[in-house]
Amino acid sequence: MNDLHQDVGAAAFTASHDPARDGAGLLRRIGQGEEDAMASFYREHGRVVFAQVLLVVGERVLAEEIVQDTMLAVWRGAGSFRGESSVRSWVIAIARRQTRDRLRRRRLRVVDDAFLADQPGPGPGPEIMALDRAELAGVKGAIRELAPAHREVLGLTFGSGLSLPEIADVLEIPLGTVKSRLAAARTALNRTLEEKGQNR
Amino acid sequence: MNADTRYPHLDLGDLIAGATGQSVGDRAREHLADCEHCQLEANRWNLVADGVRGLAADAPEAAQPAWAARTRHRGVAPWRRVTLVAASAAAAMVLLGGIGVAAGVVHVHLSGPGARSQPILTAVNGCSEVEQADGTLAHVDGRTLVILTAGGRPVTVTTTPSTFISMSGALLSDITDGASVMVSGNRSGGTVRAAIVTVGQPFGAVNPPGLAPLEGTVSDASTAGFTVLTSTGARLAVTTSGDTLVIVPHASPAQLKAGTRIFALGNAEPDGTLSARAVAAVSQLPPGRHIKVSLKGCSPSSMVYALGTISATPASAR
C-alpha cells in the first residue's frame, strides 16, 4: 500500500509551525527594537526564506542579497504586522516582493509569466511515465530548469510550510489558480524529464 | 485500475496534503488504500516534493546577515545602520569616469590619477574589519599574490580556496562551448552584440543598466561570437569584438596575469599582508587610478558585489 504520509526528507526543509516561536510576539519584540528577537526570527525563518528565494532566482549571491533586504524590511516593518496571516506567509510575501523588485531592475521576467505558467498541459500521456520512472537526482535537476513561476509555486508548496490558501495569498491569485499552476508545473516537470531522458 | 467507486479520486489538495505530511481524512486514506490511480498520483507528488526538499537541503548556508555580528552594539539599530549605508551608496552611485554599474548595495568611487600618497592598505567604508589593497600584479606564487601599489610598494595578498577571485578584460578565449554565460548587449533581430559576457556564476554580481541580459549555454564559440541556448530552448547568435568585456567570476590564482590591476578585500594581518576574502583582477583598467570601495556590511556577498562592480568597469572609463 502506498503510504500517503510518506514524507522522506521533510525535516530537511519544511519547518514546523510552532505557535510559541512562530507567533506575533516575536515581531512585537522586533518592532520594539530587540535585536535578539531579530536574531531569533532569522534562525526561525531565514533558512526557509533563503531556500525559496534561491529556488526562484537560481543565484546564491543574489538570493543572499534578497534575504538581507527581506530581513531589513522585517526589522523596519515588524510593527505593521496585523496578524491577518501567519508570520511565515508574511515574511515569504515580503521576500517575494523583494525578489520581484530586484529582478525587475535586472529586466528579467521571472514571476510575471503567470499566464503561461497556468496553462494546462496535455492530459496523462506517455510523458507521465517519465516522472514515474525518474530518480530523485533527475527530478532535482529538472526542477532547476522549470520556469521561475513553476519553481516558485513548487517551492512554496513543498518547502515553505504554507497551506495552499496561504500560498494563494502570497501569490495574490485565487486558490484554484494555485492548483492549476501546480498541475502545470508538474506537467512541465514531466516534459523536462522526458526531454532529458531522465526516465530509467 | 480503480477498485473504489464509492469515493471519487483524491483531489489535488488531498495529494498535496499527503506529500507535505499534513493530515487527510479517513475516507481519503481508505480510498487511497484501494486506488491504484491515486497511489500513482501520490507517488508522483511525493517525488516532486522530495525534489524540492532535496534542492533546499543542497542549498548552501546563506551568508550571515550583517546585523548578526553587531547585536551587541547600542545606539542606531543594526538594520538602520545598514540602511544608512545603502542610502548613501545609492545616492552616490553615479561614479566618476562614467561608470554606471549599480548593484544597489555597494559604492565604488573611482578617483583620478595622483594616488601616489595612497597607503598600502586602505580602510573600506561600511565594514571596519575589512581593508583594501589595490595595485598591479607582480607575480603569483601558489595562492599568494604580490602586487605593487601605485607608489611602487609591494603588498602580499594571501588567498584560500574560499577566496572569491574574479577576472575581467578582453578574455574572449574564456568563452568556450558548454560554458554558462550571461550576455549583456544590444539585441537586433535574433542577434545580440555583446557588451559584457559573464562566464559562470554568480551573474548577479554584474548588472549594468540599460542592457538586456540573456542567460544560457554557449555553443559554436569562435573569435567572432557564439550561440546561446537558453533554458526555453531558444538559440540566439551573439557577436563579440575587441570591445566586449568578458568577466570570469570564479578564477584561480594561476589564471591571473602579471601586470593586471588587482583589487583585494580582506583582513590585514599583523605582518602587513592581506588575507583576502575577495579579489578582482581587472585587466581593462590602466594603473594610476584609485578605486575606493564601500560596502553594505561585511557579508561575503557585499564584497562579491563590490568587486563585481569593479570588474564591470568598462575600458571607456579610462
Share in β-strands of chain A: under 5%
Largest sheet of chain B: 13 strands, mixed
Greatest interface: A-B, 68 and 67 residues
Largest sheet of chain A: none
How many helices of chain B? The count is: 5
Distance between the termini of chain B: 73 Å
Q: Return residue spans of chain A where pLDDT drops below 50 for at least 5 consecutive residues.
A: 1-22, 108-116
Distance between the termini of chain A: 23 Å
Indicate how many domains the architecture of chain B comprises.
3
Strand fraction of chain B equals 25-35%
Annotation, overall tally of beta strands of chain B: 15
Structural write-up:
The complex is a heterodimer of chains A (200) and B (318). Chain A is mostly helical and 200 residues long. Chain A folds into two domains: 19-105, RNA polymerase sigma factor, region 2, helix turn helix motif (Rna Polymerase Sigma Factor, Chain: A, Orthogonal Bundle), CATH 1.10.1740.10; 114-196, Arc Repressor Mutant, subunit A (Orthogonal Bundle). Helices cover 65% and strands 0% of the residues of chain A. Chain A is built from ten helices and no strands. In chain A, helix 2 (35-57) packs antiparallel against helix 3 (60-77), helix 2 (35-57) packs across helix 4 (87-105) and helix 3 packs across helix 4 (87-105). The longest helix of chain A has 23 residues, at 35-57. With 318 residues, chain B is an alpha+beta fold. Chain B has three domains: 12-58, no CATH class; 67-168 and 250-317, Copper binding periplasmic protein CusF (OB fold (Dihydrolipoamide Acetyltransferase, E2P)), CATH 2.40.50.320; 171-243, no CATH class. Chain B has five helices and 15 strands. Chain B has helices at residues 12-19, 26-34, 36-58, 78-91, 300-311, and strands spanning 107-110, 121-123, 131-141, 144-148, 154-158, 164-169, 180-188, 191-199, 212-222, 225-229, 235-239, 245-248, 261-268, 274-282, 291-294. In chain B, the strands form two sheets. In chain B, strands 2, 3, 4, 5, 6, 7, 8, 9, 10, 11, 12, 13 and 14 form a 13-stranded mixed sheet that branches. The radius of gyration of chain B is 25 Å and the shape is elongated. At the A-B interface, helix 2, helix 3, helix 6, helix 7 and helix 8 of A face helix 1, helix 2, helix 3, helix 4 and helix 5 of B.
